Amino acid sequence: MQGALTFDEIQKLVKENNRSKEFSDEFVICLIWKETNFNPSRTNSQTITGLMQISKGAVDMVNKLTPAGTHFEHADMLDPATNIQCGTLYLDIAKNKLGGIDASFGTGKGYSKSIHTCEACLKGDTAHPMVALHKIHL
């Protein structure tokens, strides 16, 4: 089991693997922090796995709704780069086809509000990223 990654490690992974056309790197970083505190080994059940807590259903949906040649296996969601690639594609699907991330990714209405607040904070104060991230869990 791998422990939590640092902010710098997550930032690099997100920059290299964010496939979203809708969500900024800062948003993805904040979502990962909210979901797992940067721990890529985190599982919430047998079906929700990795940094972005990707479910088997989300992996299946990404495979079904992305261009040919894009394919993921749920068993690979513990790999941080793969998890971010699949998870960011799923974010776009959630926003555009499933009624938003509050309805399809989080725990209900208002889920994304703290993530958007964190995103704005990260964009405005890159010198102190952990200050923005810790606001999510207050």
From TrEMBL:
Coiled-coil zones: none
Q: Where is the Transglycosylase SLT domain?
A: 14-100
Name of the molecule in the record: Transglycosylase SLT domain-containing protein
Give the top-rank taxon of the lineage listed in the UniProt record for this protein: Bacteria
Pfam families under this entry? SLT (PF01464)
InterPro entries linked: Lysozyme-like_dom_sf (IPR023346), Transglycosylase_SLT_dom_1 (IPR008258)
Organism from which the protein derives? Limnobacter humi
